[in-house]
Specification:
The structure holds two protein chains of two kinds. Chain A is of the alpha/beta class. Chain A is built from three helices and six strands, in the order ββαβββαβα. Chain B starts with 13 loop residues before the first strand and ends with a helix. In chain B, the strands form four sheets. Chain B has a nine-stranded mixed sheet with strand order 4-3-16-15-14-5-6-12-13. Classes of the chains: A alpha/beta, B alpha/beta. Chains A and B meet through helix 3 of A and helix 1, helix 14, helix 15 and helix 16 of B.
Chain lengths: 109, 396
């Protein structure tokens, strides 16, 4: 079935939080907000900011901001942060393929 | 054993028959993965002996024109003291994670700009337990159960039923979800507006959060002992922390409110205290210029390409600081001392493998509230942070 949301791109404010239970290439959306922008649990999403792009696994959590998302503080979130280490704005769209890896980021060095 | 998984430094963790008792999931994770991904002695990514790696580290630091030392928040006070001596010997910059973490809060407490207290006194006496921009569920999972909200204390015989919980956050975090009975959750869009609301309320005027602030001030006035724990959400939520500290002082004119940083690396406060005792500054210090400055923060030095070598101990900048800044580590000579093969170790010029402080080496650490704890490791490894730093110091 064709998913219209596959062709949409949204700007989202992402908080960076300590989340010792969930590490890796993941991004958490509030269930209501995810519904609004057409993202489902375990969708692969492309998160982009300027020329930086990562593919992350989308998860749903009631602890996420109501109109945004959060990422655990690790190299995937640090990839996007600038002067404010705790939040950034990025574009999010549904993607195909596999999650980005730490090695891909290190290779970009 | 003292758990060094976070700055709570819980002193009741036991290892019995290979099982970890009393630890939270953070402490359990550190201990259960102790043997995984251990660092190896490397020079230019080739395996060498520990002595050769240290020799190369000495050569790099000794020849550097503008060296820096950074990290040290998960090691012991004794190792931190040697690190400061090395920085002095090299006329180097020295900094730790507190420059982008809760350093300003520790500094205000050390300079007695705001009142502070111990976690034991909070457990025994505190009525209002106030978390602002902090989510101990993730950062210090036993904080509320061992020290603050839940335990029974001398003046709080019914535990949390004898307390009032205040949570301030931009999202309904796990901690915020606990704010139900005898509690209030204040969801903010701007922390500055809440600070302003407190200031206005204390002058008898109404701000944006007048109703919520009124409730909190009424509860604070009910007791002569209340405690606030602040986290990174506050640090990055306000334009500057001076206005926040002024608010704390104003509140203290009408009700007693003690301030304690919520949680950070196991011995970040130890680093701040060691450097403060030596220099009068807690971080971002240049021994060449004999002063601290925001321009001397490790991230700022990297941004401006001002250093040519760095000694990193117990920190992984590639994971924790913005990538556009941390990637500049590739351009300088980097020495990593760490028990684990961290991401930064993978790109370092030299890696010196060390022991986990607290689990594999003894010494002293300072809890988030300033109480010193003597570590009781389950084994004592000879090659630990203190031993390595002493060797580097001797070599220089």
């Amino acid at each position: 079935m064709l998913r219209i949301s596959k062709f949409l791109k949204f700007e989202v404010e992402v908080l960076v939080v300590r989340d010792s239970l969930n590490e890796g290439a993941v991004i958490f959306f509030h269930p209501e907000f995810a519904k609004k922008i057409g993202i489902k649990e375990n969708d692969l999403v492309e998160v982009s900011k300027g020329d930086k792009v990562l593919r992350l696994r989308a998860k749903l959590s009631n602890f996420a901001p109501e109109n945004g998302a959060y990422m655990p503080n690790n190299i995937f979130s640090s990839y996007f942060t600038e002067n404010n280490f705790k939040k950034f704005k990025a574009n999010v769209e549904i993607a195909d393929g596999k999650e980005s890896t730490v090695e891909e980021i290190l290779d970009s060095l | 054993m003292i758990c060094t998984g976070c700055s709570c430094l819980c002193d009741d963790v036991e290892i019995r028959d290979g099982k970890i008792l009393n630890a939270c999931y953070r402490g359990y994770k550190v201990y259960s993965k102790l043997s995984e991904n251990r660092a190896r002695a490397l020079v230019d990514r080739r395996e060498v002996s520990v002595d050769d790696a240290i020799e190369k580290a000495v050569e790099i630091l000794g020849q550097a024109k503008n060296p820096a030392l950074y990290g040290f928040d998960t090691t012991t006070v004794e190792a931190q003291e040697v690190a400061v001596k090395i920085a002095e010997k090299l006329n180097a910059f020295i900094d730790d994670n507190s420059s982008f973490c809760l350093g300003e809060v520790v500094e205000a407490i050390l300079k007695k700009d705001v009142p502070s207290t111990t976690l034991e006194d909070v457990r025994d006496q505190a009525y209002v337990i106030f978390y602002w921009g902090a989510n101990p569920y993730s950062s210090a999972p036993r904080h509320m159960s061992k020290f603050t909200y839940y335990p029974r204390g001398m003046k709080r015989l019914k535990g949390y039923e004898d307390r009032f919980l205040v949570v301030v956050d931009v999202r309904r975090s796990e901690t915020a979800k606990l704010a139900k009975k005898n509690a209030i959750f204040i969801k903010v869009e701007s922390d500055d507006e809440l600070v302003e609301s407190f200031n206005l309320a204390l002058e008898g005027k109404a701000g944006k959060y007048a109703k919520e602030v009124g409730t909190v001030i009424t509860e604070l006035k009910r007791s002569d002992f209340n405690a606030m724990f602040v986290g990174l959400g506050l640090k990055y939520g306000v334009r500057n922390l001076d206005g926040f500290f002024e608010m704390i002082r104003k509140i203290n004119r009408v009700a007693k409110l003690y301030l304690i940083p919520s949680a950070f690396h196991s011995n970040m406060r130890g680093f701040n205290e060691v450097l403060f005792e030596k220099t009068g500054s807690i971080n971002k210090f240049s021994f060449k210029e004999q002063r601290s400055d925001k321009l001397f923060a490790f991230t700022e030095l990297l941004k401006r390409d001002e250093i040519d070598a760095v000694l990193l101990l117990g920190t992984d900048p590639l994971s924790s600081i913005p990538f556009e800044i941390s990637k500049k580590i590739m351009r300088i000579k980097t020495v990593v001392v760490d028990p684990k093969m961290s991401l930064t170790a993978k790109i370092a010029k030299v890696v010196v493998p060390s022991a986990f402080s607290g689990f594999e080496s003894s010494g002293t650490m300072v809890r988030s509230d300033g109480v010193r704890k003597r570590l009781e490791p389950i084994e004592e490894k000879e090659v630990n942070d203190l031993w390595i730093l002493k060797k580097i110091s001797e070599g220089l």
